[in-house]
Amino acid sequence: MQGTELVLKALQAKGVKYIFGYTGGAIMPVFDEMEKQQHFSFVMPRHEQGAAFMAQGLSRASLSTEHPQVGVCMSTSGPGAMNLVTGIADAHMDSVPIIAITGQVATGVIATDAFQESDVVGVMMPICKQTYMPLAAEEVEKTIHEAFYVATTGRFGPVVIDIPKDVQLQQTAPDYQFNPRSFRPRLPGFYYHPSPERDVLHRAIGMINRSERPVMFCGHGVIASNAGAMLQEFAEKTNIPVAFTLHGLSAMPADHPLSLGMMGMHGTIEANRAVMNADLIISFGMRFDDRVTGKLNEYARNADVIHVEIDPSELDKNVATTVAINADVYRTLHVMLSDPELVCKPRRRWLKEVEANRRTMQESMATELEKGVGQEGKLLMKSIVSRLSDLTEGRDIVVPDVGQHQMIAARFYNFQTANSWFASGGAGTMGCSLPMAIGAKLARPDERVWSISGDGGFQMNIQELGTVMQLQVDVKIMILNNGYLGMVRQWQTLFFDGRYAGTPMQSPDYELIAKAYGIPYRKVTLLDEVEEALRFAIDHQGPCILEFICDPSEIVLPMIPAGGGFGDMIVSNQAE
Amino acid sequence: MTAKPMKRRAILAFVQDKPGTLNKISSLVRRKMYNVDTLTVCKAKVPGVSRMTITLREDDEAKVTQVLRQVEKFTEVIRAKELERDHSYWREVAIVKFELEEKQFKKLQQRYQLEVLDRQPHDIWIVQIAGPTDRLDGFLQDLGSEHLIEIARTGVTALEK
Predict the structure, then answer these.
(1) Where are the alpha helices (DSSP H) in A97-215?
(2) What is the CATH number of domain A198-353?
(3) Do the chains contact at B15 and A187, CB–CB below 8 Å?
(4) Could you report the per-residue pLDDT of A380-392, keeping only the tens digit for each?
(5) Closest by alpha carbon to A364, among A272, A238, A445?
(6) Which CATH number fits domain B8-83: 3.30.70.260, 3.40.50.620, 3.20.20.140, 3.30.1490.20?
(7) A420/A385 Cα distance (integer angstroms)
């Protein structure tokens, strides 16, 4: 068998259906084999970065389905592989399992600065979970199986396989001994510890029982281990409110009485005050990122911390734990729920306090939400998102880009469907939304998918409209256009005396752009047009673009300034 | 004013003997903004496994634990731990070329148990010295930099008691 056949044989065995790839000299043999076999659905992005984000969208959205898939992106050597870098680094930061297969120049000319040669393994090593370069065709199949194992075992992450062109073309005798089903790679250094240890678990349960003001944190690990329903059950059983990280959103219904919404820099008042006043934090599958904690030495000073996390290197990294549980979130919750020693306290006083804070939050938002427009009569992003949330009853998949609209969507979309929110969190990569939404739609074709971008982020991967056009992927694209890089503008307003350096931005005529790609388009400038436009998108079969002209002076609040503590939370904009 | 030098730490890692492992570990140490004091790699008892000894300077225990956990996270790293100074031997070897009159040389040789590798005309010596870092440093100080021509040091390797 040829190396290329083994590549595809392994992908097929791993249940891969879609390949997001861009061809070129060093990967042509694999594409040629793909054309011969006609087994995979091939998706062509218009830039390799798009391929990496499409793969992410597919992996993330399919995670909660019956048949989880790992997104596979493919590129040629040199510039092709380098264009994948941002998408792979993003997947690494957000623990998303994807496989990147890159063509490499032939082994005979590696390290001679050959045409389109880059040191892919060297570049990718610090930004992905593992890298491979098979040097003979007989290594290819096992390498790919090992790559899938590493990507999807323990804390998820991207894996890169760099295959030299001559290895792709090499012939080798098929290995009949190899059974992909029973194959377990020999990885003596691969640490994976999914089951919680009894004695630490008992200590944790004792602390939960004693606690009067506990709060639970729901991180990406809850989504990744499909433990949302179990977390909800645990919260209900113990009367403990739940605060969410950006990636923990949608793990349980956003309007659940015990849900505090998102915490951290742009978190809700009720979430951040609960963290500040808690005597116990029980955190599930998260890593205490600086956007969550703010100033570390002021963070949750009165609280003990129980940290459940699959990656041991995250324990005690930013926040010192009282009890560290190195285990899978699902398994831990499962054992905790059935523990007879778990006491179900009503915790009425604590929940009343939470409720009071929730009301403060709602009141601070009410006027603006009701008005729906800013001072100049331009649309407020929060009014658009909350209308979208109402119309879709919070059931759709939302894929935001990065910036103000992302924080607003995180706060104002009333998530009802488990695993329905896919954002770039750790890396904060502008331009991720459109390609990631394409991947998400392919994973869950029966659900509606909204790609929400600002005018800045949208123009970063605007070329992926070509992919939408060619495949007619039914993605509802919303551009919240305020003529600025809004989040940076917000910081300039608050911390740089209103000097708008490098943030004003002109957009092309999106109507003409939409027309050029043959995608239906609606422009919305007035509040009472919002609902009609959204209804149009909902009713329309196929992709469409909605452009909303937004107020550039909208500020995402509350906000804890970078490096500030929870006491520094800005709740209302004094300038107005 | 010079800051007090931080505590020297030795990290021992058993790693899979394959290309890229050293690169990963040294990249991580760089990312954590440490300067590697010394780094030695050799084959371990088990075939296919190397042992790597890294020394760096850090006072904060929690930071060292973080480095260890992140080193251990690499698929290629089988086990990593810190070697306590009191419970392990830290040794290095140096080959030193210098110019010194025979009489003075004899004194040094006796004190430091130098193994003479070569004696060249004009009182030029090439010797080997082994031992703890401070012993090597002591020898170099006694020798005096004005006599020194060239030096090669292995860096620290270590073994638990």
Answers:
(1) 120-124, 137-152, 165-169, 198-210
(2) 3.40.50.1220
(3) no
(4) 999 999 999 999 9
(5) A272
(6) 3.30.70.260
(7) 15
| Helix residue ranges per DSSP H, chain B | 21-31, 61-73, 102-112, 133-143
Domain ranges of chain B: 8-83, 89-160
Asked if B75 has any chain A CB less than 8 Å from its own CB, the reply is: yes
Name every chain B residue with its beta carbon within 8 A of the beta carbon of A189. Answer: 15-16, 72, 74-79
Interface test with B, best of A124, A153, A184, A191 (most B CBs within 10 A): A191
- The ipTM value here is 0.87
B140: pLDDT strictly greater than 80:
yes
Query: Å from A189 to nearest chain B CA?
Result: 4
Nearest CA in chain A to B79: A189
Determine the residue type at A356: A
Give residue A565's pLDDT: 87
Secondary structure of B2-39 in the HEC alphabet? Answer: CCCCCCEEEEEEEEECCCCHHHHHHHHHHHCCCCCCEE
The string of pLDDT tens digits covering residues B64-90 is 999 999 999 999 999 999 999 999 999
Topology at the third CATH level for domain A375-553: Rossmann fold (3.40.50)
Q: How far is A467 from A472, CA to CA, in rounded Å?
A: 8
Distance from the Cα of A315 to chain B's closest Cα (Å) equals 9
